[in-house]
Amino acid sequence: MKPNKIPHPESFILALVFVLLLVLSFFSQGYYGGTDNINHYFLSRYSWTYPNLFLNPWGRPLYTILSSPFAQFGFQGIKVFNVILGTLSAWLLMKTARELKVKPSWLAIIILCFTPLYMIMLFTAMTEIVFSFVFICSLYLFFSKRFIAAAIVISFLPFARSEGYFMIPVIFLGLVLRREWKAIPFLGLGFVVFSLLGAYQFKDLLWVIRNNPYPLIHPVYHTPGDFWVFIKKADITFGIPVLALLCLGIIRLFTTLFSADKEKRKNAFEIILMFLIPVLGYYFFHSFMYSKGWAGSLGFIRVMAGILPLTALIALYGSGVFSMLAANRNWLRNVFMALIAGLIIVFNFTTYKIPIPLGEEETILKKGTDWVKASFHPIPLVLYNDFNVPYFLNTDPYSPQKSLQLWFTPSVKDIPMGAIYIWDSHFGANECKIPLDTVMCDPYLRLIRLIRPKKEFLTLGDYPYEVYIFRKNPIASEFDNYFLTQTFIDEEDKDFTPVVRKVFDFEKATPDVDARVINTNAASGKQSFVMDGKTEFSPGLAFPCSDLPFTDRKIRVKARVKLFSAVPFTANAAALVISLEDKKGSYCYKGVFLDKGNYPSDKWNQIFLNVDLPRIKSKDDVIKVYVWHQGKSDLLIDDLIIDILALRSQEN
Fold first, then answer.
1. By CB count within 10 A, which of 20, 30, 55, 520 is most buried?
2. What's the whole-number mean pLDDT along residues 536-549?
3. Of the candidates 319, 351, 383, which is a domain's last residue?
């Protein structure tokens, strides 16, 4: 051994990367991939308390079983689990590269661990890292000629992620080409083992087939998407350097098929067969499913993390182009490899925020749960839609005495007395199918807190993200939740300065309203405005954005009105509307639709609507506020008050 040569540089690099990943995982307060992280964490964490969770099909039984010891140490424990498996995947990839004579094998560690998507997935509780580990482990065993072991390992892949069923044929084909017939029956071992394990729990030997958590047409996630979405996001999946090496690797593989060197041709063919074709198949499968809106596919690129060890080996093969350019000049080859490693690392840290901060939705929701913890001692039963609620409250999500997830509108009436219900506009309005109006109009649920971001952002379904906290009272509340919403929003207005206020009390005669003013029924004063079946739009505000003192700050529009209908609003539809319009039409349209809420007829209803406008496109745009009447019966309106406010400073 030369004195200036580092012994076992691969081990040194691997250890260094492992320590770095551990440190980054501890400093990452958030996680990539949304609330699915928390669902997986809870299944692993509480599987020791509720053993039936081990075989929960959605949770992926193999993942739950392997991660459960780590989950007992909290969410950080499960992140450490993924970091360990990710590092082991890099080690196995390096050893696989050696078997295939793809050099330099140490670079495989850098390529995989610093592929942007793979790194951020290491700091999660998601299943893709386990999938990648099992897959590369099976491939390593195959190329090291331990064929039965390879077949056994790959047989468990579907229980890490469902895509595993489509990857088993990869090893099957390899075994057939190598005539390793004895190993083929072991490809079904995982299915047999888990079928037997779950036969007692599910009372069904075929539970694996019959308990598919993803029906072809998902009840919520079924919107078709762009077939090319995963290709279009390749830059943030791989990072530019790895993506370039991947393209070089694919080109080099096919050109090597025509090499005069028989061994090189054989290696290139096996890499195409066992690495490239599975990657292309995996991409096509997810692209096709998303384009059809099938099996709940939402086009999330995180699913690609499962095959990144395979793309890393192809990228490593692509780096061989630079070794060829260096020829016999070892110093130049080392310079090339060092530059490649450096570029991969730099681009990784410029693609995503690492350490990962808490997400926007989680930050707002945590403010709500922190308020609950500070306001109630002890904390009563908490009902919720987002699994982050029991996570932030550190309560058992499977204990009906401590917390309970609420699904579907009828369940709102069954909320126990004294319980707290935390509704959020992501899961409440979408997955759990509980419209906000249904909760707001329940007389026994009183709004006790509203949490909104300072800067509005949209969540799933294009709803502004907000968190409403209610308490179930034993008697009907005399407070209107919409009025209470307004009081919470008024507290926020201290950061805003008034721009314009328009009041329609209909007490003074004006040419545009005088003909429709009546004095037989009014919410206040003596007069109100009547909209008959032929009157679609009320008096209102059409404010040109050119009159705003500035358009580069947040603009808030607040409207309130009192409405009266002698017949139910379901037969006399009306809405309070705020719209931001350009020459092509409205690009921000919000409304309170009375026919969809629980608004009584034959009495005055106070309606509130508050909207933080998106960035105004042009000073030629117009802010409009009005009552829209679609019914055929008379609708009375009174006390229409409209305010436009602007944020005092951009920093807020």
1. 55
2. 92
3. 351
